[in-house]
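Worked example

This section walks through a single chain of length 142. The input is the sequence exactly as stored; nothing has been trimmed or padded.
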Amino acid sequence: MRPRDYVAVRGPDAADFLDRMLSNDVAQAPCPALLLTPKARVIAPLVLVRRGDGDFLLLTEPGLGEAVRSTLLRARFAAKCEIEPEEHSSLVVFGGEVEGIPNGEYGEPAVEVLDTEPPADVLDEEELERRRIEAGTPRWGR
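Given that input, the structure is written out below as tokens.
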């Protein structure tokens, strides 16, 4: 299991709003992105996922979901979109036989799948962390 916080952004202005707020273009979704301050300081690393027209899910590091939500709410002004936390579980699947959100954190082909029943042979969080470190991938707060 991959620990994450999740924030949904939905509404007719969601794509335009996220294009203005994130470091990556929403047309590239699923993709990594950063939520930055006006002075370009990192608030949170994200993975941006388009679930449908005007429906996006932001995956971030554990403990950063509220910071992402509150920052987006403060900047929303007149944009017609809802910004809400969501509860999901994220499972990293190695090998590429399953469709999911591309994940390059571990130095080998992997995808993240949400809300899937884990198989019997799941790597624990410590083993995933070891693989991430061996791959040389930085992680927020570590």
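What to look for: Residues 68 and 92 are 23 Å apart (CA to CA).
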